[in-house]
Amino acid sequence: MPAYDFRSPRLFVKAPLTAGSALPLDRAQAHYLTTVLRRKPGAGVLVFNGRDGEWSAELEGRKRDVALCLGAKVRDQTAPADLHYLFAPLKSARLDYMVQKAVEMGASRLQPVLTRHGQVARVNLERMRANAIEAAEQCGILSLPEIAAPVDLTRLLADRDPARTIVFCDEDAEVANPLAALSALPPRSPLAVLVGPEGGFAEDERAALRKLPNVVRIGLGPRILRADTAAVAALAVVQAVVGDWVTDDGRRTTEDR
To answer: What are phi and psi of 185, to 5 degrees?
Structure first.
């Protein structure tokens, strides 16, 4: 991401973005800019809404009566990677971390999956959205992932799109090297990465996954990883081998810069 402005604060807004328009800020955003960051009128801010690219803006007003005046578009909207992250729900603090890292790694959909040995059955979707927005704001990401409601693993597999490859993180995978297991997949094809609960998949769940077509099983090394660590490891491997870290001809994107 060359020549990117990492110094200006970024805000996600829901409103359409057009040059010269004024965007009123909600109380939390106004507090963040004027009290936490101590920004004064005229200070620069970057804004995005997930549809219209990224725009420069200037802060207007003070305290509660704060708005942003839009200037010029600084980045065009880009399409998100077609990468779903499917995961057994975690307890709140670790779920917060996992959501943030999945967004940073380019996941376009976050799907909680209920499994036999999962320890958490209820998910705060609004908290997930807030963490996704925060990660996107901090990391220059233009698109927010879809936040899906929890679904049972059996229903998920029954309703799956067969054209979307499931990358199933399985400690019993026959191919120990995840890079080798993924090497046959075409770059940037529709993918779903599935990480189970810390209690592991039940044997019948694992068997159901093994029977499905278009499923690739990968291991994540010789050590047992916590579920939130496994999220980062799995998404990094997938992005590096077949995700948006590579071009259509399989080269790493950094080689083209």
So the answer is: -80, 145
Locate 124 and state its tokens. Answer: 């705060």
- SS3 category, 65: strand
Dihedral sign of CA atoms 14, 245, 85, 160 in order: positive
Query: Which pTM value belongs to this model?
Result: 0.88
DSSP string covering 205-257, please?
A: HHHHHHHSSSEEEE---SSPPPHHHHHHHHHHHHHHHTSTTB-TTS-BGGGG-
pLDDT tens digits, 190-225: 999 999 988 889 999 999 999 999 999 998 888 888
d(CA 3, CA 50): 21
For each of the domains in the chain, give its residue range(s) and CATH number, in order of start: 10-75 (2.40.240.20), 83-241 (3.40.1280.10)
Q: What is the largest CA-CA distance in the chain?
A: 62
Whether 248 shows a pLDDT value over 60: the answer reads no
